[in-house]
Write a structure and sequence with these properties.
With about 280 residues, the protein is of the alpha/beta class. It has eight helices and 14 strands. The radius of gyration is 18 Å and the shape is globular.
Length: about 280
């Protein structure tokens, strides 16, 4: 289960209704002793001659949908020095064929034997080259500035990792859209390689175990920019009652006209309409 709520932070200055998100976001830097310090993060004007390589690691079930849309989100990222490492135990080769057709040299895919989810994550990390590892789930969508904010959060704070304090949560089958409670969500992890523990050889919950371990050992940066991540209910492996609880504890919800208007705004930044069409 999630850890206790983090202290309240100022509301984000990048409202979802905006056509383009702002270049600033509130952050909370947390310490292993439970203390926290709030501030505001601003994206740099440039990344210099040699920005750190970020390795986005994707564990995929091998299905084109919705993995192709998560890959499209990776390709839209504004941060320049990055790679996407995909590991899959699927045997039909459909996703590998899709990646090959893209002709993107920053994307690699490897087939491996069936193994627990935690071991698959370790396999992806082992195949990556970056000093920063960013989780890239194959069933969710990301804003083009997600990696940029994650990297910017790590540089000045000297923290071991960054996470989004809140995310967007979308349940297409029920027409529900919300902003989650304040927590620091595992699926948004961007961690320094040297500080990232080995994932336990278990199924779901492997990322929670790793993030909780890091919380007790290192300072972490929590970025309050929910527009950076759209978590989608329907293809996710978590049980239905877990998502019902997430909606019950949401900090903001979008219904009726606001639901459609917000999805339309998000579609300018990430392939929401294509996701809808593929369900």
């Amino acid at each position: 289960m999630p850890a206790p709520d983090m202290p309240e932070t100022p509301p984000t200055d990048a409202p979802i209704a905006a056509a383009a998100p702002a270049r600033t976001a509130p952050v909370a830097i947390t310490a292993p002793d439970g203390g926290s310090q709030e501030g505001v993060l601003t994206l740099p004007d440039g990344w210099g001659a040699a920005p750190p390589l970020v390795s986005c690691t994707m564990i995929s079930r091998g299905r084109i949908f919705p993995a192709a849309l998560a890959i499209e989100c990776y390709r839209r990222q504004t941060y320049p020095n990055r790679e996407l490492v995909i590991v899959t135990a699927a045997t039909d080769g459909a996703l590998a064929a899709h990646v090959a057709a893209l002709g993107d040299p920053t994307i690699r895919i490897d087939s491996v034997a069936e193994m627990p989810l935690g071991e698959l994550r370790n396999a992806a990390v082992a195949r990556s080259r970056g000093g920063i590892l960013c989780t890239w789930d194959d069933d969710d969508l990301s804003d083009p500035q997600r990696i940029a904010f994650a990297v910017a959060a790590l540089a000045p704070a000297r923290a071991a990792a960054s996470l989004l304090l809140r995310t967007l949560l979308w349940w297409p089958a029920r027409g529900r859209l919300a902003i989650t409670r304040r927590y620091g969500w595992e699926m948004t992890l961007a961690a320094r390689r040297a500080a990232l523990p080995i994932f336990p050889a278990i199924g779901p919950g492997e990322d929670t175990t790793v993030v909780n371990l890091m919380r007790g050992l290192h300072p972490l940066v929590l970025i309050d920019r929910p527009i950076d991540y759209l978590r989608v209910v329907g293809t996710n492996i978590c049980p239905v009652d877990h998502f019902e609880w997430l909606f019950d504890t949401a900090t903001e919800t979008f219904a009726d006209e606001a639901y459609e208007a917000t999805l339309a705004t998000l579609d300018r930044r990430m392939p929401v309409a294509a996701y809808r069409a593929g369900l």
